[in-house]
Design goal:
With 365 residues, the chain is an all-alpha fold. It has two domains: 136 residues, no CATH class; 222 residues, no CATH class. The chain is 80% helix and 0% strand. It contains 14 helices and no strands. Helix 8 packs across helix 9. The chain is flat and about 75 Å long. The relative contact order is 0.11.
Length: 365
């Protein structure tokens, strides 16, 4: 049986890595992306040959890949890199799970392509320690996470407020009180999300800043020891001892660069992630939740009763489908499958709260 999905996945990955290469300013990093593109395209051709197909039957990049290209143009290509690496990590985990169930031995090809990227860098003598450190920062980009947060933030607002609105509508037969409850739910939920995000970001920043200061103290008091430690870290990654020492020595020439690399390698902290504003994160979370939460409330500004309930359900279903479709940017699943699954779960949650509201309303009446 021809697995067209696997072929399409490889084609899309090759297309996206090529896109990253074309828009990368650092030629060393661009070379890595080009090599990854060639690897992915080679995998696609291998699948074709395995199924007795020729290169002319190679599919074009999917709409998902083209959508990511548009996102890259609008918001920067780190978003594309984040989504791509997250997707490959998910694929790698799925393969590992399948091998565990079937009790088959692991293969080098099972590993996530993030590891392949590191191996290409480590095996390229033209790439210096500073460029490796720069790439480490890039491949840990939060672009994919930012997109995911936007989608999930809207989903939280929509599902929670849709369920709340339907529960109140069931209890009151869709009267004007639903609008007040919906707006209250929107405001309460958005404020709660914003406060939670602010506390999360602020506390993380304070913790990491303390750890970073301790690392800087160690660099200033014992630079030789930190250089040896950094060399050992690279050595443990499979880099030859001579190259590991050279990379560590180069990085330690700059105290700031050494500090950045060491806190990343020892503590797993990316300094770029700490530059974000806690207030900005809180406001963003507030807005994303509110955008989703306002959808089921809109009809109750103009209508009431069954008409408002039906229109609210329709608008919410459309919103749920769009959220499900957006999730496919990370999962690679079918847009229709993911979209309708999201609609089914959202409507089911709303139906349950509507039924409970109806029972409570009858009981109170």
């Amino acid at each position: 049986m021809i697995d067209l999905k696997n072929i399409q996945t490889e084609v899309d990955a090759g297309f996206l890595y090529g896109l990253l290469a074309d828009n990368e300013e650092d030629e060393d990093v661009a070379t890595v992306f080009r090599q990854m593109s060639e690897i992915e395209n080679g995998h696609a051709l291998a699948f074709l040959q395995k199924n007795n197909m020729n290169a002319s039957q190679l599919p074009k990049p999917s709409n998902r890949a083209k959508t990511l290209k548009t996102i890259g143009k609008l918001f920067g290509y780190n978003y594309v890199l984040g989504v791509l690496l997250d997707t490959e990590k998910s694929i790698s985990n799925s393969i590992a799970g399948a091998r565990k169930k079937s009790k088959t031995s692991n293969s080098i090809s099972d590993t996530a392509h993030v590891t392949i990227l590191k191996n290409i860098l480590n095996g390229n003598s033209n790439i210096s320690g500073s460029n490796l450190a720069r790439f480490e920062k890039r491949h840990r980009s939060v672009g994919g996470n930012a997109l995911r947060a936007a989608v999930l933030g809207g989903n939280d607002g929509l599902v929670s407020n849709f369920s709340l609105v339907m529960g109140i509508a069931g209890a009151t037969s869709g009267q004007t009180g639903v609008l007040l409850a919906g707006l209250a739910g929107l405001l309460a939920g958005a404020l709660s999300m914003a406060l939670g995000e602010w506390i999360s970001v602020k506390s993380s920043q304070e913790l990491y800043e303390n750890q970073m200061q301790l690392e800087m103290d160690e660099i200033e008091t014992n630079p030789e020891g930190e250089e040896r430690e950094l060399a050992l870290i690279y050595l443990s990654k499979g880099i030859k001892e001579s190259q590991a020492k050279e990379m560590a020595k180069e990085i330690m020439l700059s105290k700031d660069k050494a500090h950045e690399v060491l806190i990343k390698e020892e503590l797993g902290i990316n300094p770029e992630d700490l530059k974000g504003s806690a207030m900005e994160a809180a406001i963003t979370s507030f807005i994303l939740f509110s955008v989703g939460a306002v959808i089921p409330v809109i009809p109750f500004f103009f209508l009431q009763g069954i008409k408002a309930i039906l229109l609210s359900s329709l608008l919410s279903a459309c919103g749920l489908f769009l959220i499900g479709a957006a999730i496919t940017l990370f999962t690679g699943k079918s847009v229709w499958f993911s979209g309708f699954r999201q609609v089914l779960f959202g409507l089911l949650a709303a139906a349950i709260t509507f039924g409970i509201g109806k029972l409570i309303g009858v009981s109170v009446g």
